[in-house]
Amino acid sequence: MNKPLKNPITYLTFIIPTFVLYAVFFVYPVIVSFYYGFFEWDGITEKVFVGFDNFTQLWKDEVFRKAIVNNFYFMAFSLIVNIPLVFLISIMISKIRRMRGFYKSAVFVPVVISTATVAILFGVLYNYDSGLINQFIRLVAPEEWAQEWLSNPKLALLSILVANAWQNIGFFIVLCLAAILNIPREIVEAAKIDGVNGWQETWTITLPLIRPVLFVMLLLSVSGTMKVLDIVQIMTNGGPFQSTEVMSTYMLKVGFRSMELGYGSAIGVAMFIIILVLTGILQRITKREEVQY
Questions:
Q1: I want to staple 265 with a disulfide (CB 3.0 to 4.6 A). Which of 33, 56, 181, 220 is the partner?
Q2: What is the overall mean pLDDT for the chain?
């Protein structure tokens, strides 16, 4: 038996602070949000119990429904575009023998940049008059092809999706690349002796062996896109005309700007339940399996 288990005091000394922090910063806020969701409250005056009215109002709220749809756009973009791109780039870097460390560092750089900086950077790139994107378009195409990227309701969400992907894709590349490089060389070499080409190696060896890591990436993508806040808040604040509104930004506006803390808490509870259900479904669909090399 491990020595810490022989001395419960030592064991509890390391475990209790973790449980306390988890309870204070996760369990307690969730419980309080559920509680406040049953009240009409502005944070100052006396709370008024309204039962399930806040929750039933959610499904009648057109802005909230639009926010949910936008969150699902974030999730779909991540699963359909980001994850395959991550896998492709990871495969390409894994085949490189020289300067592999440089490429790993290069793709990871956006991850360490603050979201506020990324949002401001892309806001400058998307600027209609002086933005680099429109300047390039004007060089190769007519002037009318230049776009109001963040002011056009049809383009604003896509513009944010690209910026969000650019910032976060590096983390998943490093995660996926680590799994690929962890595959024993003996397996790859044996496959090559059997006449397996590069395409067959990718689909019959690499992909099945990194399946648990891909599952983790899917799980992080789903939970992360359902909670996205800062980049939307800074770039468009949910506009124009709620075209980029997501659940987190709407919760912030309702709870802390309109001072409807009860209704804002109900939105937070809805977010929690949606994320819980989606991750539960994902776990059932992609049953986690341990890979044996």
A1: 33
A2: 88
Cis status, amide bond into 184, omega within 30 of 0: no
- DSSP string covering the chain, please? --HHHH-HHHHHHHHHHHHHHHIIIIIHHHHHHHHHTTEE--SSS--EE-TTHHHHHHTT-HHHHHHHHHHHHHHHHIIIIIHHHHHHHHHHHHT--SSHHHHHHHHHHHHHS-HHHHHHHHHHHT-TTT-HHHHHHHHHS-GGG---TTT-TTTHHHHHHHHHHHHHHHHHHHHHHHHHHTS-HHHHHHHHHTT--HHHHIIIIIHHHTHHHHHHHHHHHHHHHHS--HHHHHHTTT-STTTT--HHHHHHIIIIIS--HHHHHHHHHHHHHHHHHHHHHHHHHS-------
The tens digit of pLDDT for each residue in 11-45 reads 788 889 989 999 999 899 889 999 999 999 988 88
Residue closest to 281 by CA, chosen among 219, 227, 228: 219
Task: Work out the average pLDDT over 95-99.
Answer: 83
Q: What is the mean pLDDT of residues 102-107?
A: 87
Domains of the chain in start order, with CATH, are 61-285 (1.10.3720.10)
Residue pLDDT, tens place only, 190-217? 877 777 777 888 888 888 888 889 899 9
pLDDT of residue 3: 59
Backbone angles phi, psi at 179, to 5 degrees: -70, -40
Q: Is the pTM of this model over 0.90?
A: no
Query: Both tokens of residue 186?
Result: 């003996």
